[in-house]
Specification:
The chain is of the alpha/beta class and about 400 residues long. The chain folds into two domains: about 220 residues, Alpha-Beta Barrel (TIM Barrel); about 130 residues, Lyase, Ornithine Decarboxylase, Chain A, domain 1, CATH 2.40.37.10. Strand 5, helix 6 and strand 6 form a beta-alpha-beta unit. About 45% of the residues are buried.
Length: about 400
């Protein structure tokens, strides 16, 4: 039997599968499901399995450590990784058939040495910088990069299965950078072809571009936040049926009465204007709850939570282990459910639940950060709303210390 949790993240794997299917159908080309950063806080291994089940042809992660976790879990499909530094140990990734990324000739030289040592050809995707000016080869290095890549391919040190880049502002469809970057990427594709490279996939579109810019889909799309049911372009109407997979919830620990003028939490930033009640929620910035979620400074709003199905604002600053919520004079039972954020309440329900996007707006950030940072001491529990099954796993402050694949508790 699953015991009640002080605080937990409930991840619906059916929502992950649904979103992956919708994105594949929308794109009409293979999908690269991005599961980096512990699947944006959702748990990399269960999410990776769900994405594969829904038809994701590729997975993508940032680091070689993340690749190693996927392979150790038994995933043998195509995986792309891209974030390395000089003197990385590529050997195991090469033997595992992982797609590495190279931004420069010097990276290719390191990969060649590792391939010789590993006794196997590497798989190397070339990333070009088309205007984000982050990772990727700058325009004046493209010809040298492509020539060196072709030479190593002829010599048998690697294959070049991919060429890719990344948008800077695809969530703003009218931003001039989108046209400029797509044109630059098309130029890169043509120059790579002139150099004799024939990549299997060319990919530029991220989640927002997949939904909003069909011309950028090329041979594959790379979707991260949309796989988790969060809108990559919340200010643009597109009508795609995405379902949030994460619900962050806790148990109401205490209810107390306040008199007019009673102040709450550090700095006394919030005080009762009249006699009221407040409740204690046993999570804080130690669990990744933004400290500013309860601070009425810029942008001038505080985050809300759902307590016993009703929206209530945070009262006072979020602390390391807890925060208080303004109950408006009501006295819900201690032990009631508190939903920090999650999917909207089911149609026909009178309950009111905030979303991760609303938390992002209250904290002057994006939903990506809200879901990725949440966790800490919260337990992660997996449900499958399609199969009506539940699987629980424990997650500590170091999320790698308890693998998400390890079964903790099971409830029928």
């Amino acid at each position: 039997m699953l015991t009640p949790a002080r605080a937990e993240l409930v991840i619906d794997l059916a929502a992950i599968r649904h979103n992956v299917r919708v994105l594949r159908e929308t794109a009409g080309v293979p999908l690269i499901a991005v599961v980096k950063a512990d699947a944006y806080g959702h748990g990399m291994l269960p999410v990776a399995r769900a994405a594969r089940e829904a038809g994701a042809e590729w997975l993508a992660v940032a680091t070689l450590d993340e690749v190693a976790r996927l392979r150790a879990d038994g995933d043998q499909g195509r995986v792309l990784t891209w974030l390395t530094v000089p003197d990385e140990d590529y050997d195991d990734a090469i033997r595992a058939g992982v797609d590495l990324s190279a931004y420069s000739v010097s990276e290719l030289e390191e990969i060649q040495a590792a391939a010789v040592y590993a006794g196997a050809p590497a798989r190397v995707q070339l990333k070009v910088d088309t205007g984000l000016h982050r990772g990727g080869a700058p325009r004046d290095a493209w010809l040298d990069l492509f020539a060196r890549a072709r030479l190593g391919e002829r010599e048998g040190h690697w294959t070049i299965p991919g060429l890719w880049s990344h948008f800077a502002a695809s969530d703003e469809p009218d931003h001039p950078s989108n046209d400029l970057q797509e044109a630059a990427f098309r130029e890169a594709c043509a120059l790579a072809d002139d150099a004799g490279l024939r990549p299997e996939i060319r990919h530029l579109a991220n989640s927002a571009a997949t939904l909003l810019r069909p011309s950028s889909r090329f041979d594959a799309v790379s979707c991260g936040i949309a796989c988790y049911g969060l809108d990559p372009a919340p200010d643009v109407a597109h009508g795609t049926d995405l379902r949030p997979a994460m619900t962050a919830r806790a148990t109401l620990g205490m209810v107390k009465h306040l008199q007019p003028g009673d102040a709450v939490s550090y700095g006394w930033r919030w005080a009762a204007e009249e006699a009221t009640t407040v409740g204690l929620v046993p999570v804080g910035y130690g669990e990744g709850v933004p400290r500013m979620a309860g601070d009425p400074g810029p942008p001038g709003a505080v985050a809300e939570v759902g307590v016993a199905g009703r929206r209530r604002p945070i009262a006072g600053r979020v602390c390391m282990d807890q925060f208080m919520v303004d109950l408006g004079g009501t006295t819900p039972p201690e032990g009631s459910e508190v939903v920090l954020f999650g999917p909207p309440a089911p149609e026909g329900s009178d309950d009111e639940y905030p979303t991760a996007q609303e938390w992002a707006e209250a904290c002057a950030t994006i939903s990506y950060e809200i879901v990725t940072r949440i966790g800490g001491r919260m337990r992660r529990r997996y449900v499958d709303s399609e199969a009506d099954s539940v699987t629980g796993t424990a997650t500590g402050a170091d999320t790698t210390s308890v693998p998400a694949s390890a079964v903790g508790e099971v409830a029928s």
